[in-house]
Write a structure and sequence with these properties.
about 80 residues, alpha+beta, structural constituent of ribosome, RNA-binding, Large ribosomal subunit protein bL34c, ribonucleoprotein
Amino acid sequence: MDFSSNNGLGNQKRRGLVVRAGKAALCLTKRNRSRKSLARTHGFRRRMRTTGGRAILKRRRAKGRKVLCPKSNPNSGKRHI
């Protein structure tokens, strides 16, 4: 395989090699946010504003979650000592 040819992607840092269906291509590595930051993004009133947010609360109630919105729970998230 020859990776020196220009395939229109340019020279960018942080690239990983991806091989799909016999073709080699370079792509950016995916970065994920931590679970804690995801859990602390929205509070109860923010969830109640949108249809999707209300659906989330409905699913969490149906599942039997004790805490519907982690942000509104003082025992979750970052600890400030």
